[in-house]
Write a structure and sequence with these properties.
Blueprint (H helix, E strand, L loop, with lengths): L2 H8 L2 H18 L5 H11 L1 H8 L1 H15 L8
Length: 79
C-alpha cells in the first residue's frame, strides 16, 4: 500500500479504534505505554490489509488493481 492510501485509511474512525485497542493490548504486554506511533506502525503493518479485506473489500481491490497496474511491464529475474 502507498502512503496516501494509508493516510486515507487513518481517517476512518473504526481504524483508529482498532489502533487504540492495539495500543492498549501491546502496552499491557510490554508493561509500559508503547506510544501511538509504534502502535499505528505495527497495526498498519500487521493488520491493515486483513481489516480492509473484511470491512472495505472494494477499496482494497481497487488499490491492489492500481498497484498491479503500476507494476506491469516491470520484469524481475528470479534466481
Amino acid at each position: 500500500m502507498k502512503i496516501s492510501e494509508l493516510k486515507e485509511l487513518l481517517k476512518d474512525t473504526r481504524v483508529m479504534e482498532e489502533i487504540h485497542k492495539h495500543l492498549w493490548i501491546e502496552s499491557q504486554k510490554a508493561g509500559y505505554n508503547i506510544g501511538i506511533e509504534r502502535a499505528t506502525d505495527e497495526w498498519l503493518r500487521l493488520y491493515a490489509e486483513g481489516w480492509m479485506k473484511y470491512h472495505i473489500p472494494d477499496k482494497l481491490k481497487k488499490a491492489e488493481e492500481k498497484n498491479n497496474g503500476n507494476k506491469k511491464g516491470v520484469s524481475r529475474k528470479r534466481n
